[in-house]
Amino acid sequence: MYNYKISLAYDGSKYLGWQVQSNQPLKTIQGKLENVLGKLFDEPIQVIASGRTDAGVHARMQVANFHTTTYKNPEEILHYLRQYLPQDIAITSLKDASERFHARYNCLTKRYGYYIDTNFFADPFSVRFAYHVPESLHLEKMEQAASHLLGTHDFKSFTSMKNKKKSTIKHIHSIDIQPTSCGIVIYYHGNGFLQHQVRIMTGTLLEVGLGHMEPEAILTILEGKSRALAGPTAPSHGLFLEEVLY
Amino acid sequence: MYNYKISLAYDGSKYLGWQVQSNQPLKTIQGKLENVLGKLFDEPIQVIASGRTDAGVHARMQVANFHTTTYKNPEEILHYLRQYLPQDIAITSLKDASERFHARYNCLTKRYGYYIDTNFFADPFSVRFAYHVPESLHLEKMEQAASHLLGTHDFKSFTSMKNKKKSTIKHIHSIDIQPTSCGIVIYYHGNGFLQHQVRIMTGTLLEVGLGHMEPEAILTILEGKSRALAGPTAPSHGLFLEEVLY
């Protein structure tokens, strides 16, 4: 068995997300990749990502791996993928990996970016890649609120995950709010994120930025352990998986 | 009569260009604006731009003006336009202008940017906004070639314009090649450009960058005064009108 490590970027606008849906595999990024690789290697290929991304979410850097029974040169694989993948999926690197490398189990931390366009008119070049909130946001209050999310917490209030057996305890290393050409981006770096966690944290930070909630409310929300206490789920098209670290 | 100066940005992907086409006015940026403004002011409005942009060409900053017989507050006009214009057209400023201001006649110089994505895989977030040339370009040679285009020249070889009465003499102040996240952008600053001039200059500079033509060939092309001597017309989707100066 051979193992390959692959890094890729994708515009998630047209997809149901990373993970194969049994009825519509070709509407997922995983399904597109498995389809093209399966044809090249002439065997069923399973592509394992660092984690799934939801419908409409983009990736500037997703990492995955896949096993094959025959060996092909990475350069040959790259040329084939460039020819047959759609233009909204780009492979940024493809390398031979050790047999033990597993894109999900070996992932240490991840960085996400959530893009918010605060212009009065939405920037026409960011419409698909940023959430349009044409308001002046109180950035210092958002930073204060974000500081309460740092460290290890039970993020039960910040997920729509229903599975009660799975732990909702996660660790956030940093949250950085940076200016962009048309607004701000909020970068989140952590050891892993629950379903919808980044989007619910963003929706809640926006409530603070808009003056609908005080920064200290974050403490009450964390303690309450109920999804109903946090802000709305920000839409998927503003979210980018930025980096996966090993 | 009242006169308004308007600055706007647009993603030209879905349009036949700036200028109204008699059979399909709503497939042009001018037509979209005139339609919405006409409804607001309840009179026919003509919007005069600094110059037309071709089908598929974008603008980060286009400038235009329009006259009305009744007066409305710029803020009211902006709110109405935001409500009724599609998301690929954004008004970045709208101000009262002196009666004599004319967006085309008063324009002093323009800046265009042509974006080239040189990654092996096209960047998924730039597919609509950059020309994909997955090759390593010889930038110093491109800069040498560009230097021969500076100053006042007869650019007859660099236009597809057929009108023999119109002068083809133009002045280029500067051509700057800058790196971007996925390749390069070539900025052109001049007192005005002929039809397809920026795209033909770009196609010719690319021939030099790819090693198909020597930088000195530019001199022969200028002297020859024939479109057949220059390189191909680079596609419209990589071109942005960046700035209009008064």
Write structural notes for this entry.
The structure is a homodimer of 246-residue chains. In chain A, a hairpin with an 8-residue loop joins strand 2 (47-49) and strand 3. In chain A, strands 1, 2, 3, 4, 5, 6, 7, 8, 9 and 10 form a 10-stranded mixed beta sheet that branches. The first copy, chain A, has helices at residues 29-41, 74-84, 139-147, 197-209, 217-224, and strands at 2-10, 47-49, 58-68, 89-97, 109-117, 131-132, 151-154, 169-180, 183-190, 239-245. In chain A, 22% of the residues lie in helices and 30% in strands. The model of chain A has no long low-confidence stretch (mean pLDDT 97). The radius of gyration of chain A is 19 Å and the shape is globular. The two termini of chain A are 22 Å apart. The first copy, chain A, has 246 residues and is an alpha+beta fold. Chain A has 2 domains: 2-97, Alpha-Beta Plaits (2-Layer Sandwich), CATH 3.30.70.580; 109-245, Alpha-Beta Plaits, CATH 3.30.70. The first copy, chain A, is built from 5 helices and 10 strands; from the N terminus they run βαββαβββαβββααβ. The A-B interface holds A 9-11, 58, 60, 78, 81-82, 85, 87-92, 119-125, 127, 129 and B 9-11, 58, 60, 78, 81-82, 85, 87-92, 119-125, 127, 129.
